[in-house]
Write a structure and sequence with these properties.
It is built from one helix and no strands. With about 60 residues, the protein is mainly alpha-helical.
């Protein structure tokens, strides 16, 4: 009986770990997709900043 309880406890622990891993993977994929979708906007803003620095050096 005690051994059965230990096995069930371990299985639930492993299940929780798998769920956390799945959630982490979903968040990582969402972050990658968001960065990919915003890459043109980010590139444009960085080019604007670079142009601003080039036009006003040392000020």
């Amino acid at each position: 009986m005690r051994e059965l309880a230990r096995k069930l406890w371990r299985q639930e622990e492993g299940q929780a770990l798998a769920e956390y891993g799945l959630i982490l993977a979903i968040i990582a994929v969402a972050a990658i997709v968001a960065l990919w979708a915003l890459s043109d906007t980010i590139k444009g803003k960085l080019e604007e900043v670079n142009t601003g620095f080039s036009e006003n050096p040392g000020s």
